[in-house]
Design a protein that fits this description.
With 137 residues, this protein is α+β, with helices and mostly antiparallel strands. Helices cover 17% and strands 26% of the residues. The chain has helices at residues 2-20, 22-25; strands at 38-46, 56-60, 79-83, 99-106, 114-121.
Length: 137
C-alpha cells in the first residue's frame, strides 16, 4: 500500500511539474504547441496611420522565400497592403513614411493566417528596395 501511495505521489508531482514547467522539463501536454507555419523578417514603409481594426498598411520589400497556401515557395513581390497586428505588438508613434522591420508569422491553417508578431522602427534614412520577388526553388 505504501508503494502505491509513493508511486501516486511521484506521478502527481511529475504531472504538476509538467504543467508548471513544460519548457524546462520537456514534458508535452502542459505547454504551448510549437508554432506552425513560417516566419519572415520584412522591411517596409508605413503608408497610413496604424489602425488595430484594419491592420498596418505598408509597402513592403519583396519576400523571396514566401511560401504560398499550396506549400510551394513562390515569393511575394513588393506591394502595398495591410497586415493584421498581433495584440502584443505596439504601433504607438508610427506615422506614414516611417520605415519599419516587421516580423510576420504565416500559418495558412490558422484563423488569422498572416499577422505582424514583431515590429521595430528603423532609421529614417534606411533605403528600401521595391522589386519583383526572386523565389529560389
Amino acid at each position: 500500500m505504501k508503494t502505491s501511495a509513493v508511486s501516486t505521489g511521484h506521478v502527481l508531482s511529475l504531472l504538476l511539474l509538467c504543467t508548471l514547467l513544460p519548457g524546462i522539463t520537456g514534458c508535452s501536454g502542459g505547454g504551448h504547441e510549437p508554432a506552425k507555419g513560417h516566419d519572415y523578417t520584412v522591411r517596409a514603409r508605413v503608408e497610413e496611420v496604424p489602425n488595430r481594426s484594419s491592420g498596418l498598411y505598408v509597402t513592403h520589400e519583396a519576400i523571396d522565400d514566401w511560401v504560398s497556401r499550396s506549400g510551394k515557395v513562390e515569393g511575394m513581390s513588393s506591394m502595398s497592403m495591410p497586415f493584421p497586428i498581433a495584440p502584443e505588438v505596439s504601433v504607438e508613434g508610427l506615422q506614414p513614411g516611417d520605415v519599419v522591420e516587421m516580423k510576420l508569422h504565416v500559418d495558412w491553417e490558422a484563423d488569422l493566417a498572416v499577422q505582424i508578431t514583431g515590429l521595430r522602427k528603423l532609421p529614417a534614412d534606411t533605403r528600401l528596395e521595391f522589386r519583383d520577388a526572386k523565389p529560389q526553388p
